[in-house]
Design goal:
It is found in: Plastid, Chloroplast. This protein is of the alpha+beta class. The chain has helices spanning 40-43, 48-54, 56-61, 78-96, 100-106; strands spanning 2-5, 8-17, 20-28, 33-35, 38-39, 67-74. Strands 1-2-3-6-4-5 form a six-stranded mixed β-sheet.
Amino acid sequence: MLTSYYNKVIYSGTGRRKTSVARVNLVPGSGKLIINGLPGESYLQFSPNYLRISCAPLHILGLDKEYDIYIKAEGGGLTGQADAIRLGLARALCNMNPENRLMLKTEGLLRRDSRIKERKKYGLRKARKAPQYSKR
């Protein structure tokens, strides 16, 4: 989706993973990463793994320092949010330039990971864990 804000073009995309949702906005700039009003490094607890996962689409396309990324992430934990950010960022880059789609698709960055927590069943302790069987 393309919108204009103070004469700047904004490209947006939404990503989901587990129970996390991330709304990503790309603005031409210097490469800042802002998540929920905080710098991205501090929000992701300075974890190199989460930062690498979140910015993977930009690294693949070589656009690391060309766009500022503003993200509203909610729900779940940091792992789910980092994966949701990755998908939202990839979708925003596809909205920006349809030629990016082929490269992101071959890397598997446009696929939504649909695995979610399985519900607990009655008579069991968790989704599949049963109480210990007693013969007598």
